[in-house]
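Lecture notes, continued. The same structure-token format from the folding unit now serves as the input rather than the output. Read the line below as a description of shape only.
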């Protein structure tokens, strides 16, 4: 009986010791967990910005009002702390490069790398990919500005093309050089003269140079193709055309469609003949027509597709595929071929 009592007392002491050890361990862990997360602050905000961006917000994640936060950064920007909560800061970027934004609340620090880049100016599409059927109309030529408009920039451009300059005008305020800023639209406006019997032709706008007020805020696009844009102006004739952009294919076998356009709808049926030539194997005309090599535009229609089936054997070696519009027939005396009647698809296996 005495042995049993001693054994029970020993068990109680062992159990109490174990409980005290667990409680002490938990206290130690809680103390470590409490201090560990506060050793590093996380700054939330954009990783890449543009020269001229103003009041871009950055803040400390999970910040508290009982802490004082201080901010430091390099020479490429200016910083303004929020007057209510200094865990928020607003940066305005004035120079090109990379900067490190840092914050500190007395017990923890955080940092963030920010890339400051220029705004590229160009057009959204190149001169061969844009065709317009506009008569007696105003044309808005959109400019592409990466990151959007910021401070003032002066853009000098030239106009060329086959359309007689007497048949169009650049609207006031859009003449070269044009000045753009964050309060305006990135576009050039021109109008086709309504009193003129327009000839079919093209207008080509080319950006020659840009002059930003703030150094490095704007640069001319690195893509030379996107420094020019071409607008085809068509009269009231029903002109048949194809997009003449030379297209490159790699190893993507499949079925490809290429649109044939009629500039204005006709009240009668128009037949357009075409041919497809290829310098190698694996190319087949898959156009859905009742007569191979002929597209039929029903009254009111303005678009048809020529479809090519290209299999894997076509990619055995380099070759060129040419789609040519060869003729037009029908009772409509105003129906005719345009100057854009040939498209080349290049297969380059290298």
């Amino acid at each position: 009986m005495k042995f049993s009592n001693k054994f029970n007392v020993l068990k109680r002491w062992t159990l109490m010791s174990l409980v005290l050890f667990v409680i002490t361990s938990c206290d130690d862990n809680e103390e470590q967990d409490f201090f560990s997360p506060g050793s590093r602050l996380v700054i939330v905000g954009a990783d890449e910005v543009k020269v001229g961006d103003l009041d871009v917000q950055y803040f400390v994640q999970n910040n508290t009002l009982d802490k004082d936060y201080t901010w430091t950064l390099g020479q490429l920007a200016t910083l303004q702390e929020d007057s209510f909560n200094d865990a928020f800061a607003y940066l305005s970027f004035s120079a090109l490069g990379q900067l490190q934004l840092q914050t500190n609340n007395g017990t923890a620090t955080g940092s963030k790398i920010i890339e400051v880049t220029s705004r590229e100016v160009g057009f959204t599409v190149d001169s061969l990919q844009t065709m317009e059927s506009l008569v007696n109309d105003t044309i808005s030529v959109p400019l592409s500005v990466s990151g959007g408009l910021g401070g003032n920039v002066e853009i000098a451009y030239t106009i060329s093309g086959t359309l007689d300059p007497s048949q169009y005008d650049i609207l006031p305020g859009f003449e070269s050089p044009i000045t753009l800023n964050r309060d305006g639209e990135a576009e050039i406006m021109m109008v086709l003269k309504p009193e003129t019997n327009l000839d079919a032709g093209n207008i080509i706008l080319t950006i020659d140079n840009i002059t930003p007020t703030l150094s490095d805020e704007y640069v001319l696009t690195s893509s030379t193709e996107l420094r020019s844009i071409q607008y085809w102006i068509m009269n009231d004739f029903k002109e048949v055309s194809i997009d003449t952009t030379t297209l490159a294919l790699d190893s993507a076998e499949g079925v490809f469609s290429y649109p044939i356009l009629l500039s204005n709808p006709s009240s009668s049926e128009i037949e357009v003949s075409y041919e497809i030539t290829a310098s190698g194997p694996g190319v087949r005309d898959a156009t859905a027509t009742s007569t191979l090599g002929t597209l039929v535009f029903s009254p009111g229609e303005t678009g048809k597709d020529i479809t090519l089936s290209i299999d894997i054997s076509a990619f055995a070696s380099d070759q060129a595929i040419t789609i040519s519009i060869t003729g037009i027939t029908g009772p409509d005396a105003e129906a005719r071929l345009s100057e854009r009647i040939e498209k080349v698809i290049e297969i380059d296996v290298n």
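Point for the exam: The chain has one helix and 27 strands.
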